Amino acid sequence: MQNNDYLPKFNKYAKDYVPHVNTPVEKAVYEPKSFFSIPDREANEYKFKAIKYAFKHHYENNSFYRQMCKEKGVTPDDIKSIDDFVKIPLVPHEFFKGYPSGKEFAMWLVSIMSIDPPKIVVKGKNPTYDDVISAFADAGIVVAYSSGTTGRFTFIPRDENTYKMAEYSIGKSAIDMLQHWWDYDTYAYLLFPDPRTTNIYVGKVTRILFDVVKDTRVAIETKITTDLLRISMGNVRNLKEKMLSKLIASKMKKMNDQMVNKIIKWADERNKNKDRIFFAGAPFILNMVMEKMDEDGIRYDFGERGAILTGGGWKTQEDKRLPVEEFRKKVEEFFGIPPENTLDLYAMVEGNGFIVHCPESHYLHIPKTYYHPIVLDENDEPVAPGEEGRFAFLDAIPKSYPGFIKTGDKVKLIDSCDCGREGYVLEPEVSRIRGEEIRGCAEEMRRILREG
Fold first, then answer.
1. Distance between CA atoms of 264 and 335, rounded to whole angstroms?
2. Which of 8, 89, 349, 452 is the most buried (most CB within 10 A)?
3. Angle at which helices 63-72 and 40-61 pack, to 10 degrees?
4. What is the pLDDT of residue 433?
5. Residues 180-203: what's their mean pLDDT?
């Protein structure tokens, strides 16, 4: 088992993400030495206090969620133990797709928030989604988004503390599982959009990478707007956008080649200098790199000097998924990085829980101190461990919106992992419920980077 000595060092580099720790939620995120290796009994003490506190906050400060609770006949006083968590009403993930446009979009964002919004000034008579997002950003609210195959977005507003806790949590979760390897003296390549210039959640929340390693490069430097992402996902509204879609597609092959060649050149330099390297992001992009390396007969042997953390499920084709085990073998072949240093992470824009492979068994471990998993059958009833169902979760972190979500993902919850860490885990592969649109961070990047 790991000894969690990494945390003081990690907190040194992540100090800008740590507030004054006062609330049960803050204590559940910042105090534990580990999200995963902590004993269940200790973790449950943190989790119960954090989720009960969060539930009370949203019940008292969010009118639409309070109405949901009243319809279910549930109040904060009814939550007396973790066993009562099943009573907490879940918000369907589709709810966050039910937004209007223009200035009404700004009003909709305010209406779903559980905090008093700061003064927000939206300029223009018919602002775009990006105009509204910028106005909220000026007021200290990060509106991150994700999209599925329909091009319909999921918009989630996060106040500054919520957003910083999310960033801290993804960093702590990743390094917790890579503590046997992590060192600040590392060169990283982020296989996502630049978090400093995007509001796509998967890119936005990875900004902490720039702080916890000494040098970070970004694969996608183009600023991605909601319109660009929508058109890239194939949702065009008029002839002009149809022509723009063709123009984007025609440029992708050249841009992809340039991106791949830059990454290989970077890896070659790191290899010659015997540097430590870390790839984080969409496995689809790294697969493109390895395909080019195969064409050119390139192989590296970074060994223990290298590590990889991929984000989300991905599809190489519309009807074919590259299994994570096969991907690890491919990484070892081309980069010489051992399988225990190649992990996958499962998360979503609605939540702030980052579920990460353990190095030993590659099951997905759930952060235990602030995040509670639930798996539901077709009647929205909890299933027993070992049975497949719809994933739902109670996330204590968000203050600005209720983080009690029923997703469109199909998972299998297992009650233990042979790596030695206590607690529930998910099987390594996560898929979509039949009838749900395909979505995910890497799927969005695949659409944007598609070859024409």
1. 11
2. 349
3. 110
4. 83
5. 92
Q: Which residue do the tokens 């720039």 mark? A: 210
Flag whether pLDDT at 442 surpasses 70. no
CB neighbour list of residue 207: distance below 8 Å, 6 or more residues apart = 167, 195, 196
CB–CB of 307/340 below 8 Å? Answer: no
Cα separation, 214 vs 185, in Å, equals 6
> What tokens were used for 117?
């919004």
Query: What beta strand segments (E) does 137-293 contain?
Result: 142-147, 153-158, 187-193, 215-220, 277-281
CB 144, CB 160: distance < 8 Å? no
Helix (H, G, I), strand (E, B) or coil at 409: strand
Question: Which of 422, 439, 449, 434 lies closest to 41 in space, CA to CA?
Answer: 422
Do residues 185 and 276 touch, judged by C-beta distance below 8 A? yes
Name the band, by pLDDT with cuts 50, 70 and 90, for residue 335: very high
Over 50: is that where the pLDDT of 134 sits? yes
Two structure tokens written together for 71: 């319809």
Beta strand pairing call for 306-311 and 187-193: unpaired
Q: Are 23 and 53 in contact (CB under 8 A)?
A: yes
* CA-to-CA separations, 48 to 23, 27, 81, 95, 159, in angstroms, rounded: 13, 12, 7, 26, 23
Residue corresponding to tokens 């991905």: 314
**How far, in Å, CA of 174 to CA of 402, rounded?**
24
Distance between CA atoms of 113 and 94, rounded to whole angstroms? 16
Q: How far apart are CA 48 and CA 366, in angstroms?
A: 15
pTM for this predicted structure: 0.92
Contact 372, 403 (CB under 8 A): no
Q: What DSSP letter does each residue of 233-290 carry, written as one string?
A: TT---SHHHHHHHHHHHHHHHHHHHHHHHHHHHHHHHHHHTT--EEEEE-HHHHHHHH
Q: Which of 30, 31, 25 is nearest to 47 (CA)?
A: 25
Ramachandran category for residue 97: left, alpha or beta (phi over 0 → left; psi -120 to 50 → alpha): alpha
Name the residue among 396, 405, 321 with its Cα closest to residue 51.
Answer: 396
How is residue 147 written in tokens?
Answer: 């999209």
Q: Do 174 and 309 touch, CB atoms closer than 8 A?
A: yes
What's the CA angle centered on 190, arms 188 and 194, to 5 degrees? 130
Cα Dmax for the chain: 64
Consecutive H or E run containing 307? strand 306-311
Round to whole Å and give the CA distance between 213 and 14.
11
Which residue, among 363, 369, 364, 360, has the nearest Cα to 347 in the 3D structure?
Answer: 364
Rounded (10°) angle between helices 129-138 and 103-111: 50
Among the ranges given (204-208, 243-247, 307-311, 370-374), the one the predictor scored with the smallest mean pLDDT: 243-247
